[in-house]
Fold each of these.
Amino acid sequence: MADTQSRIEITRTWRSEIVSLIVFFFMAIISIVLTQLFPWSIIHGELFRIGDTVFRMRLPLFWFLPVITIGCAMYRIYNVRYTITERGVEREIGILAFQRRLIRVWFEDIRSLQTHQSLLQRMLGVGNLEISTAATGTVEIVLNGIAVPEEVQQMLERERDKRQIPQHSQKNQHNRGTGGEYPPEDQSSSPSEADPKREAASL
């Protein structure tokens, strides 16, 4: 992180979509069974000819079930990008969409980081990392489905602490220079330091 050109990109891992993968294989088996039970669901047709060669199409309609399942999983993985720069954390949404949205949080603005993992996610070594800011007090960025979220959290906490400690020391120095220390008392007004002539006159 010391290099000004360093950028660490973190992507969602396929392990975070283990449920979608299980559903994909389950739907693939179902589509094979349904295709055998309902042969009319297979679309036959001629695509094109090249000379005497005819290219035909056989498209089982039920195969759209596993294709949609795996397509949604791929969209969730590749439509978002997490980047750690020398200044903070960025979350870019809409990589595969027409519009993109970029959310950026500076290290010095980070208030808290929390890792959330289910039992299955702990077994697979993945999880979600929530980043809250001091300005709003709410979660600004969520890193979903990343690998080893505890290590990422520790890295971000170190970068945050390195930038927040110098700011606190500067504030303390500023307070000392502008009234943080009490001015010395005026010793000339104490009775022990009174004018001897004034004491003689009173006698």
Note: The longest strand covers residues 42-50.
Amino acid sequence: MWPLNPEMRRTPFLRQLVSAAARCRRAAALTAVALLLAACAGYRLGPTAGFAAGSRTIRVQYFENHTLQPRLSEALAHALRKRLQQDGTYRLVSAGEPDVVVSGEILRFQRRPLSFQPRDVRTTRDEELELAVRLVVADRRAGTNLVDREVTARMDVRLEGNQTSAERQALTQLAEDFADRAAPLIVDGVW
């Protein structure tokens, strides 16, 4: 782009062009850095609740099951423990006095047919599973409830072959969906 002849670079006009181009590059670089810093201004590493990661302990108790579906309580507690452990805000404990206790009750487990077999309109092909849980998160230090609300999880299931085994497999995914919805409420609190 610029002439390679050193004689031509010595002319005042070309020196001004070269210095102007250098100033534009510097201004563009400074603008990019300023935009990058401004975009990251609201981001924080670590827990959002205002304390250091792992400094507070939490216990996830089994949920009281008011439905006829077996093994729901164990699946929900396992999925929620796994999700909280991945988050890292709290340190899970099973013995001693934790700072925070998670408990609750399973209120509803419902199946809704979405579609039926083409040649048998009484046999469900796809169904929606819905789970409603009253989630209670108690801060034992302060003696208050951090969260006390209903959390609903849903998923669609294709019933191929055996309905019982398809629902059993879907139960794990439904518990993970519940954990994905409940963990931010526990970690960040209710807004």
Note: The domain at 56-188 is CATH 3.30.160.150 (Double Stranded RNA Binding Domain).
